Amino acid sequence: MAREKKRIVSGRTMQLSIECEDRPGTLARLTRIIGRAKANIVAISCAPVGVLGTLHVVVDDVDRVKKILNREGVSYTEQEVLRVEMPNLPGSLGEFAEKLTKQDVNITTAYGSASRGSKRATVIFKVSDLEKAASIR
């Protein structure tokens, strides 16, 4: 059982990135559009740069979300990223990051979360070598 808690599950997934205005209501509008696609948001990150911002989102049905974004006239880009599910325990993220370091894989972006009391955390990584990173457990 203790071994299961330490288990790392990783794989490639698509991230959609949407450049948008940094103003009230933007996140609400974009996430309502995603909700209308009946897709669940697995991970989300947004950050402003001046008057603009970028929303990065990983969803459970990227094709449905892309269709509705296209229909709504919302432009986006796609990037393949690493999705990692790891134990929600102190040091787990550091241990995984160290494994990437030992394989000479650079982390260029990372975001993630876990609910209080949850046994698992989800972290999204944009890395320098996705193929190598996806094989790390």
Characteristics of this structure?
single chain, 137 residues, alpha+beta, Alpha-Beta Plaits, VC0802-like, 2 domains, 5 helices, globular
Report on this model:
With 137 residues, the chain is an alpha+beta fold. It folds into two domains: 2-11 and 81-130, 2-Layer Sandwich (Alpha-Beta Plaits), CATH 3.30.70.260; 14-79, VC0802-like. It is built from five helices and six strands. It has helices at 2-6, 26-36, 62-71, 92-102, 130-134; strands at residues 9-21, 41-49, 52-59, 77-87, 107-113, 120-127. The two termini are 17 Å apart.
CATH superfamily annotation of the largest domain: VC0802-like
CATH topology of the largest domain: VC0802-like
Tally of extended strands? 6
The number of distinct helices, counting runs of at least 4 residues, comes to 5
CATH architecture of the largest domain: 2-Layer Sandwich
Q: Structural class from helices and strands?
A: alpha+beta
Low-confidence stretches at least 5 residues in length (pLDDT < 50)?
none
Subunit arrangement of the protein: single chain
- Give, in spatial order, the strands making up the sheet with the most strands: 2-3-1-4-6-5
Amount of beta strand: 35-45%
The major beta sheet can be summarized as: 6 strands, antiparallel
The mean pLDDT is: 92
User: At the first level of CATH, what is the class of the largest domain?
Assistant: Alpha Beta
The helix-strand sequence is HEHEEHEHEEH
Into which percent range does the helicity of residues fall? 25-40%
